[in-house]
Design a protein that fits this description.
A hairpin with a 2-residue loop joins strand 1 and strand 2. The chain has 248 residues and is an all-alpha fold. Strands 1-2 form a two-stranded antiparallel sheet. It contains 6 helices and 2 strands, in the order H-E-E-H-H-H-H-H.
């Protein structure tokens, strides 16, 4: 492709040459050389036509180059991100779910919670035998201890996932900075949101486990108070009356 400045210089040179030939040559406009008729004005017109045609070709070449660059950029924007951390994140979430499913004694089930609270906390049988009341208190205490143990397990799982989340964030940030197109950048951003969702899931599970343990402990203390009052009443009722010495 001829540069624009060179092309303009060529046209100027041709025009000057044609003008000079018209001024210097006093011969007729049409000259004959060996049977071939030479017309300077016709020759100049042909040169200008060829130059314009060459300029049009150059413009078409530039247009094709721009279209090719546009297609290359579109191809880059459609390239998928080669890095993915979704599978490790899903594994971490499944591990947290498994810890919640392994809850001891009173699980995270609405119906089971209702039945357990009705039998062990809400409707404590105060007319039961002393042995039955002791066994009920022991069962409630074990529920509280199991709840705190489950909370510690979930907390340990969430802490263990921190390292995986850190590695995933570093990998995604690096991939986002080296992204070659809009699609790769968007996918990196979406996966960063997935990391945040996994962290929120761990936080939710931890709060649920801690709240469960605290609730069981509070319910155990409330039931113990009601049972203690009944046991005190029984103790006072069965205690022999004190009679002063010498009384009949």
């Amino acid at each position: 492709m001829i540069p624009r400045r060179t092309f303009r210089g060529l046209l100027t040179g041709i025009a000057l040459a044609c003008a000079g030939s018209g001024a210097l040559v006093s011969a007729p406009a049409h000259a004959q050389f060996g049977g071939v008729v030479y017309d300077p004005s016709n020759y100049a017109q042909n040169v200008l036509t060829a130059a314009r045609t060459l300029e049009q070709i150059n413009n078409q070449i530039r247009m094709l180059q721009n279209q090719a660059n546009s297609l290359v950029n579109e191809a880059r924007n459609l390239q998928s991100l080669p890095t993915t951390v979704l599978q490790p994140l899903q594994d971490q979430i499944r591990q947290t779910q498994q810890l919640l499913r392994e809850a001891q004694r009173i699980a995270y089930d609405v119906r089971q919670i209702e039945a357990s609270f009705d039998a062990q906390y809400k409707n404590v049988p105060l007319n039961a035998s002393q042995q039955a009341m002791v066994e009920g208190a022991e069962a409630r205490w074990q529920n509280s201890v199991a709840g705190f143990e489950d909370a510690l397990k979930v907390q340990a799982g969430a802490v263990a996932n921190i390292e995986g989340s850190r590695a995933a964030v570093n990998e995604l940030v690096s991939a986002s900075q080296s992204a070659t197109g809009a699609l790769q950048a968007a996918q990196a951003g979406n996966q960063l949101l997935a990391v945040q969702a996994q962290q929120l899931a761990d936080l939710t599970a931890t709060l649920a486990a801690v709240s469960r343990a605290q609730t069981l402990d509070a319910a155990e203390r409330a039931a113990a108070k009601a049972q203690a009052r009944e046991q005190l009443r029984r103790f006072l009722a069965n205690r022999p009356r004190y009679l002063p010495s010498g009384s009949k």
